[in-house]
Design brief:
Number of helices of chain A: 11
Structural class of chain B: mainly alpha
Distance between the termini of chain A: 24 Å
Order of helices and strands of chain A: HHHHHHHHHHH
Distance between the termini of chain B: 153 Å
Helix content of chain A: over 70%
Number of domains of chain A: 1
CATH class of chain A: Mainly Alpha
Largest sheet of chain B: none
Number of strands of chain B: 0
CATH architecture of chain A: Orthogonal Bundle
Strand content of chain B: under 5%
Shape of chain A: globular
Oligomer: heterodimer
Helix content of chain B: over 70%
Shape of chain B: elongated
Largest interface: A-B, 43 and 27 residues
Strand content of chain A: under 5%
Radius of gyration of chain A: 19 Å
Chain lengths: 203, 234
């Protein structure tokens, strides 16, 4: 079943991950030379991606801005030693995932997440039509189901389905092999099925 | 579950919420630079503080280790003798305790059992104390020698201050010798009148002691020998 899933998820599993472009190398080289504008250009190019990824990995809770700041702070410290074996976006994605893990490991953030998801679930909207209210509840349930997944499953789901990375890129970002990505995707889907069984039946 | 359905559900749930607004690049870059600089300063401060604390701890430990009045653990006399068979100088040997405070050796041997490591430690401590005592003895000897030299130097300086100028002393002696010679010549002149031999003696005084009062007097007598008297000569 895993191999079947693999074939469905990624038909280009053997495709090579793109090598870093000359723009990345140019930006990093300018940063090494002390060009202040290079770092701002890196932020301008990658901040939307980083912020969206952080928001999804954190379960659509607060903290995406903090994580973005931490990511670029880590990048500022380590960018001079960037070897260019991957693209800058891949490298920043890995940093973002690590920062999100660190952020979520804090007990306070976890409690805040639970409180906010409970708030999303219980917000009454009496004036809405039934279809809109039902869809909103469904979206909330999906987000809550993804947010309560274990991090290793949530990461592959977000990277593959929401960020649009292919399995090979997910494997490179997470530092695991492709089969492991397929296994995690399969288990994540299974867990989501269990959590959202009522929604599947309605659809 | 269809994969497309899952993708659609996730995308729909994601888009239902407003997307997080990315920060403004310039502001974020400034903030990141400031945080990196502050973090670097904190790291440097922590490193300097840690080094200072380490130095302080090491110095305190060294001072405690080198303290001369560190109480040594009690040992029975026979074990001390086994621990260090070499003789200990009398200065380093502590005074024996009073008879009423001294414990019985057999009793101490029963109550205190030293391990081999403790014995080795005691030996090293005794050796260190002996070396320290030798160094202090050398310092005391050097200080005593220097003190004696300074005392002798002060005596010599005082003695030197009492001496007269040797040139002045020699001049005085010269004048005195010339006067004595003139006196004896005048005595002969009184007895024998101004004979050629007496005149030769006056010339000799002038030759031997020039620029003296006696030489001037001799010249005067040679020119007017009738006016000479003993009182004028002296």
């Amino acid at each position: 079943m895993i191999m079947k899933m693999a074939a469905r998820c990624d038909t280009t599993a053997n495709r090579e991950v793109k090598s870093p472009g000359w723009q990345d190398r140019d930006l990093v080289e300018r940063f090494r030379r002390g060009d202040q504008g290079a770092f701002e250009q890196i932020i301008a190019e990658h901040a939307p991606w980083i912020t969206a990824l952080a928001q999804r990995l954190l379960g659509w809770s607060d903290g995406a801005e903090d994580v973005t700041q931490e990511v670029f702070l880590a990048a500022y410290r380590k960018l001079a030693s960037f070897r260019g074996q991957a693209t800058l976006r891949t490298w920043l994605t890995t940093v973002t995932i690590n920062q999100c893990r660190r952020h979520q490991s804090k007990r306070l953030a976890y409690l805040r997440l639970r409180h906010q998801t409970a708030q999303h679930k219980t917000q009454p909207q009496p004036d809405e039509p039934d279809t809109q209210q039902r869809r909103r509840e469904q979206d909330t349930a999906v987000r809550q189901a993804v947010a309560t997944l274990p991090p290793r499953y949530r990461e592959v789901l977000v990277l593959h389905y929401l960020q649009g990375l292919e399995v090979a890129q997910v494997a490179q970002v997470l530092g695991i092999n492709r089969k492991t990505v397929y296994v995690r995707l399969s288990r994540a889907r299974k867990r989501l099925e269990d959590k959202l069984s009522t929604i599947w039946q309605d659809r | 579950m269809d994969e497309n359905t899952l993708r659609q559900l996730l995308t729909q749930a994601d888009e239902a919420l407003p997307a997080a607004v990315p920060p403004e690049p310039h502001a974020l870059a400034t903030l990141v630079r400031r945080r990196a600089q502050r973090s670097r300063q904190i790291h440097q401060l922590v490193a300097i503080s840690a080094a200072a604390l380490l130095i302080a701890a090491v110095s305190v430990a060294l001072s405690l280790w080198a303290a001369p009045d560190t109480p040594a653990p009690q040992q029975p006399p026979e074990q001390l003798a086994q621990a260090d068979p070499s003789p200990i100088s009398p200065e380093l040997t502590p005074a024996p305790p009073p008879p009423e405070q001294a414990a019985e050796p057999a009793e101490l041997a029963q109550t205190v059992r030293l391990t081999r490591a403790e014995m080795m430690q005691l030996r090293s401590e005794i050796a260190a104390l002996r070396a320290e005592a030798e160094v202090r003895q050398q310092i005391i000897d050097a200080m005593l020698l220097r003190q004696a030299q300074q005392k002798r130097l002060a005596v010599l300086k005082k003695k030197l201050a009492t001496y007269r100028d040797p040139i002045t002393e020699a001049r005085g002696l010269r004048e005195e010798t010339a006067a004595i010679s003139l006196y004896w010549t005048d005595t002969r002149a009184k007895q024998d009148e101004l004979t050629p031999a007496v005149a030769q003696e006056y010339r000799r005084i002038i030759e031997l002691f020039p620029e003296t009062q006696a030489a001037e007097q001799a010249r005067r007598y040679l020119s007017t020998p009738q006016q000479q008297t003993q009182g004028e000569i002296l």
